[in-house]
Design brief:
11 helices, about 30% helix, four-stranded antiparallel beta sheet, about 30% strand, flat, alpha+beta, Resuscitation-promoting factor rpfb fold
Length: about 450
């Protein structure tokens, strides 16, 4: 007599599933009902629900409370949840639910012991980096090169700078959040100066070749900050014979992360706000010091409109990544750039190991005035014959700049044209109704 196969197979399957379920349950029963996280917090593992609820409580304890980031005497309070830091619930649940490597039978006979469970975190790297960049602005201190003192002619020693190591500090913050620590210490990198006092003494840079100053409004705080920062970065720059100075290379990117601020700047003849506004006053001041030192100008461009702090033909605009100011040390001896910002004045000086054989002066000549012109915007809603001036025009200029060499008695030895610059005119803008009178009468009669 043949036995039915289907009921037997069904019974076997049921036994297998029941056995697996019982074994799985026994494992959870034999496990300690707690796991210990990296922060010393005990979490229940009776079920997925209670475990995830415990993770919610853990996240509130670790990531909702302020954590102090310390750098020397400076302190900032950071809250992990506000920076996009969360506990990786799925990853930690998988860690708990994973089968023990020695198998069920061996594991069942062991006494129940707490299990260590590392805390997994997920985070928004961009959000954390943005906050650390803000903190980095407060920590940033540019290095100071060794430089001659204009008054005493002695050498002022160099000073190292400092900056925040963002990746390393981010790693320390994450470790502190995982461990439930109340504080973390920022990682600060030393920024070495480019020129040392020993190097200056060995080169004998004690002769002032030329110095030039320009003036600014001290009430414009962002602009003053940028001028001071750029001047500091230039201070102590050393050039050996034949080397070429690059303003953009020495000063570097004008970014918020590096400590520059927003201030007015000229873009396409218009005054706008931009990070690093005011930098061009430093490059223009240095341009004149370089001319008066008899150095060869390699790259220089004028602004698109006249400036209040310097004369026509005497300016040098810069824009990182696009427009640079460069000059070459064409002397047979090393030279050094020094800077000073006092009150409302920025001064750039160039020092050399030898004195100049001649003195230099700069002469500018306006060769042509370019009429401003006018642009009229049509506004049919305005009454016929009326107009409104929206923007004053400004005449343009064509300017020639000459470098003149002078003898001991002040007489001219030779002159060389340095540049021919054009400052384009800015047309006035007027708004009025351009509808012809005859057509306007026809429209009004309808």
């Amino acid at each position: 007599m043949r036995q039915p196969i289907v009921p037997v197979a069904a019974l076997l399957c049921a036994c297998v599933f029941l056995g697996y379920g019982m074994a799985h349950w026994l494992v959870w029963a034999r496990l300690s009902r707690e796991v210990i996280t990296g922060g010393g917090t005990k979490l229940p593992i009776d079920s997925e629900t209670s475990f995830l609820e415990a993770l919610d409580l853990l996240e509130a304890r670790l990531l909702e409370q302020p954590l102090q980031l310390i750098a020397g005497e400076q302190t900032w309070e950071l809250i992990g949840s506000q920076l996009g830091v969360q506990i990786d619930r799925l990853g930690m649940w998988h860690d708990v639910a994973a089968h023990p490597p020695e198998g069920y039978l061996a594991f069942l006979v062991r006494p129940r012991q707490p299990r260590y469970l590392p805390i997994r975190l997920v985070y928004d790297e961009e959000t954390i980096n943005e906050r650390l960049a803000e903190i980095g602005q407060e920590i940033w201190r540019p290095p100071r090169n060794a430089r001659p003192d204009p008054q005493t002619r002695s050498i002022v020693p160099e000073e190292s700078g400092q900056e925040l190591d963002v990746p390393a500090t981010r790693a320390r913050l994450l470790d502190a959040w995982r461990a439930g620590e109340p504080r973390a210490f920022a990682v600060i990198k030393t920024v070495p100066p480019g020129t040392t006092a020993a190097a200056l003494r060995s080169l004998g840079l004690r002769h002032l070749l030329a110095s030039f100053s320009s003036y600014f409004d001290p009430a414009q705080e962002g602009r003053v900050h940028n001028i001071t920062m750029a001047a500091t970065l230039l201070d102590g720059t050393l050039l050996l014979p034949g080397e070429v100075f690059s303003f953009n290379t020495v000063v570097g990117p004008r970014t918020v992360e590096r400590g520059f601020r927003a201030a007015p700047e000229i873009v396409n003849q218009e005054m706008v706000w931009g990070v690093g506004g005011g930098i061009c006053q430093v490059s223009s001041t240095l341009y004149n010091a370089a001319l008066l030192s008899g150095l060869q100008i390699v790259e220089r461009r004028p602004h698109s409109r006249p400036l209040g702090y310097i004369g026509l033909g005497r300016d040098a605009t810069v824009y990182y990544g696009a427009i640079d100011f460069r000059f070459a040390n064409t002397h047979s001896f090393p030279i050094l750039v020094s800077s000073e910002v006092v009150g409302n004045r920025v001064t750039l000086s160039i020092w050399g190991a030898n004195e100049l054989s001649v003195m230099y002066t700069v002469v500018t000549e306006e060769s042509e005035i370019l009429p401003a012109g006018e642009v009229i915007e049509n506004d049919p809603s305005m009454p016929i014959g009326e107009s409104v001036l929206l923007k004053e025009g400004q005449e343009g200029r064509r300017v020639e700049t000459w470098l003149v060499a002078l003898g001991p008695d002040g007489s001219e030895i030779w002159r060389q044209r340095v540049s021919q610059d054009v400052y384009p005119p800015q047309p006035s803008v007027r708004r009025q109704n351009l509808t012809p009178p005859s057509l306007a009468e026809e429209i009004s009669s309808l």
